[in-house]
Design a protein that fits this description.
Layout: H1 2-20, E1 25-30, H2 32-48, E2 53-58, H3 64-69, E3 75-78, E4 87-101, E5 112-113, E6 123-126, H4 131-142, E7 149-153, H5 156-164, E8 170-173, H6 178-182, E9 187-188, E10 190-191, E11 197-205, H7 212-221
Parallel strand pairs: 1-2, 1-3, 5-10, 6-7
Antiparallel strand pairs: 3-11, 4-8, 4-9, 4-11
Helix pairs in contact: 1-7
Domain LysR substrate-binding: 21-221
Organism: Candidatus Acidiferrum panamense
Protein name: LysR family transcriptional regulator substrate-binding protein
């Protein structure tokens, strides 16, 4: 117990030093959607540790574990379990996939639809393969419903704008469309057969000690 108290006091002292004196550096890897999640925490982190230089490197989610192991990143934010004993992961946020349509769309005033109602829709999808995209494709296939992915785009922002303009519909991470749903520039419609929860995880190497800057960030988001 005394040893634990000593370590805890040492950590508190290190974080106080980081806050007051140190010009540390923190490099975090994230993809497009998880970068949006980070924004809410980076502002607070900068308030607490103004001398720490924070760099968020946008990367494909599938590449982040290897970048961590290669030492190119200190922390990574991903939406799947890396299932690698060389990495530790901590769930820091729960999100879901939202089915969104334009306020002008024929389904905009429905609270709930079935997958069968979506067989004639034009879907706008992200052109990066993800576990959630695969689940959507598999679910439509199992229900024997056509999934018309007629448009693929490189960014979530572009998909969001196309859906707002009623050029198609999309499944998007809810945290990426919360503001639009609140402002009613997009409408969320529940699909009965689908409830896809996304666990956002902070990931870091098991055997490499975290810097004080990284430890402080981990404490902030935990």
């Amino acid at each position: 117990a005394r040893r634990f108290q000593s370590l805890e006091q040492e950590l508190d002292n290190s974080l106080a030093e980081l806050r007051d004196n140190s010009a540390g550096r923190l490099v975090i890897g994230a993809n497009e959607s998880t970068t949006l999640y980070l924004l809410r925490h980076i502002e607070r982190y900068r308030e607490l540790y103004p001398k720490v230089k924070v760099t968020v490197r946008r990367s494909l989610s599938s590449r982040i574990p290897n970048e961590l192991l290669d030492g190119n990143l200190e922390l990574g934010v991903i939406s799947y379990d890396p299932s690698d004993e060389r990495l530790k992961s901590k769930v820091i946020y729960s999100d879901s996939l939202a089915f969104v349509v334009s306020p002008k769309h024929r389904l905009a005033h429905r609270k709930t639809v079935s997958i069968e109602d979506l067989g004639s829709e034009t879907f706008i999808a992200h052109n990066v393969v993800s576990p959630y995209r695969e689940v959507v494709i598999r679910t439509f296939r199992e229900r024997k419903v056509p999934l018309g992915i007629d448009v693929e785009m490189p960014t979530i922002d572009t998909i969001r704008k196309l859906v707002q303009n009623n050029l198609g519909v999309a499944f998007l991470p809810r945290m990426c469309v919360e503001q639009e749903i609140e402002q009613k520039t997009l409408r969320e419609v529940r699909v009965k057969e689908m409830h896809l929860e996304r666990k956002i995880r902070l990931v870091y190497p098991t055997r490499r000690g975290l810097s004080h800057a990284a430890t402080a960030f981990l404490q902030l988001v935990a």
